[in-house]
Structure formats: structure tokens, C-alpha cells
Amino acid sequence: MGTSRWDRERQVNENVARAEELRAQGRPREAQEFADRAIAAAEAIVAQDPADAQARWVLAGQLYNRASLRSELDDYAAGAADAWQSLTLYEPLAAESPQHLPTCADARARLAWMLANAGLADADMGSPRDHAAQAVATYERLVADDPALRPDLARVHYLHAEVLRILEGEGTPASVAAYAACVREYQSLGPLTGNSLRLCADGALRLAYGYAANDAHTGQRDAAREAMDRFAELLNQGVGAHAHYARAILLLSDAQAALGDPEWEQSWVDFEYVLSQLPAPLPADLAPFKEQLKRR
Fold first, then answer.
1. 121: alpha, beta or left, given left = phi > 0 and alpha = psi -120 to 50?
2. Which of 167, 95, 172, 174 has the alpha carbon at shortest distance from 136?
């Protein structure tokens, strides 16, 4: 007697729960073993009834989750394969029911980010630039009808900017424009918490670096101040972001000095203090400054 669908659904649920538990414990490699089992059970359900939209939805979601898990293991090529398979399942579901369009756009943005990190810019799975831009365009259309999706639009703007930075390098016109769009979207949302606050802070810091690469000091100053304020919020919420906080203050001080703003000296003092509080070993970009402080 074969395995029943009920048994396979139970296998999916039990293995997903265990994978999530291990991932929360910081054990992604072990978590992947259970994610693999969940996907195998979901694939068996789809094989039994390929027309079952709910079964395909479940499989697509588990592939999406494993792609994210593989990114934690720096296995971006395998993650891209999962993200691609997830997208190919979500696309017909979205065509059948527009309510699935946001999830499909999320899968497309995830694929773009995975492809860029894997160095697969010209892969058969499509262009990461095109996938990221299409995800943004989809959310822009969706937000026009449902403003509640604006945080998701900001998030895919961030992923779009990351893709461009990874492929093109720091400070290109396209990546700067994408990070600027990301920060504007987050600023329009009002008070931020959780992942939205973190992505806004990261996006503002990357924007400051992008402006710095182009000697655009006014933009660098404003973006660095935004990043500094957001990282301060994270720190107040107990989220460790001290190194990024130090980077934001340093970029602010540099921009102020270039603009002839005497406040650069206070910003530099603030940077020195934050740097002195960072535990060893320091990130490679901040370590030289710590050595300067020791020699003074």
C-alpha cells in the first residue's frame, strides 16, 4: 500500500517545523536536511496530482525557503536553482489568480539576488538585472491599487539595488538611483521596526558609500546621517549594528569635512568613541582607524 497524501502532508509539516527550529538556532546546514525532506514529500504530492494548485503552491514556497536557507550557507548557485524552480511554479499560479502576484514578484527578486551572488549574470535562468527590475515594476503596479504593499515595494527596491551593486560595483549611477529609491520608500512609511528598519539602515549606508565614490558630498552627508539615525534606532532596540553605526558616522564626518562644515570634528569624536567600544577583531575596513587611535 502506497503512502497516502495525508501522510505526505504530515511529512511536509513535520520537516518544515524542524527545519525552522534548527534555522532559528543558527544551524542552517542541519536545517537543510529537513528542508530537503519536506521538499521531497511536497514533490511527491505534486507528482500524484499535478493539477492541484495548492500542492504546487506549497512546493513553490518550500523551494523559496530552501533558497533562502542556502544563501546562509553561501551556496548561491544551488539557491538560484531553487529560486528559479520556485518562480516557475509561482508564475502560472499568479496567471491563474492575481492574488499570487506579490509572492511571484518576491520569488523573482529572490532569484535576481541569488543569480547576482552566484555570478550567474548570463545564466539560462535569466538576467538578474531584468528579474530585479521586473519585481520592482510589479510591486509598483500593485501598490497603486493597494498601498499596504508599500513596505514590500521598498524591500524589492533594496534587492534591486543590491543586485546592481554586486554586478556593477559601488557607486554606479544605476545602483545609486536604486538605493535612493529604496531609502525614499522607507522614509515614506513613517516609523520603522524589524526588517524594514534594518533594510532602510543598510540601504542608506550603501547610498552614502555610493555618493562617496562619486565625491557627491551633500548626498553622502544626508545619506550617512539617515544611516546613522537608523542604526541608532536598531541599537536602541537591542539589535547589534555597532560596526555599521561606526561606518555611518565616519562617512558623515568625511562629508562634513569636505563641505567645510565644522561639525565634522564632533562627528569624528563620536566615531572614535564608537570605534573604541567595538570588540576585537575589528572588520578590515575599520581596523586601521583603531591602530591610529592606539598610536596617539
1. alpha
2. 174
Q: Which of 104, 81, 84 is nearest to 92 (CA)?
A: 104
Q: Is residue 180 within 8 Å of residue 205, measured between CB atoms?
A: no
**Which amino acid is present at 294?**
K
Helical spans, DSSP H, in the chain? 5-24, 28-48, 53-72, 76-96, 101-118, 128-145, 150-168, 173-187, 194-213, 217-236, 242-258, 264-277, 287-295
Which cell numbers hold the place of 148? Answer: 499596504
Q: Reduce the DSSP state of residue 221 to 3 states and report it.
A: helix
Q: What is the DSSP string of 101-115?
A: HHHHHHHHHHHHHHH
**175-233 tens-digit pLDDT:** 999 999 999 999 999 999 999 999 999 999 999 999 999 999 999 999 999 999 999 99
CA 73, CA 147: separation in Å to the nearest integer?
35
Contacts of range 89-96, beta carbons closer than 8 Å, 24 or more positions apart: 89/56, 89/57, 89/59, 89/60, 89/63, 90/60, 92/56, 93/53, 93/56, 93/57, 93/60, 96/53
Rg, C-alpha atoms of the chain: 22
C-alpha–C-alpha distance, residues 61 and 67, integer Å? 10
pLDDT digits (tens, 9 = 90+) for 45-56: 999 999 999 999
Grid cell at residue 129: 538585472
pLDDT of residue 294: 60
Look up residue 97 and give its DSSP letter.
Answer: -
Q: Is 212 in contact with 234 (CB distance < 8 Å)? A: no
HSE-CB at 34 with a 13 A cutoff on CA atoms is 17
pTM above 0.85, yes or no: yes
Q: What amino acid occupies position 126?
A: G
* CA atoms of 191 and 212, how far apart (whole Å): 27
Dihedral class, residue 283 (left if φ above 0, else alpha if ψ from -120 to 50, else beta): beta
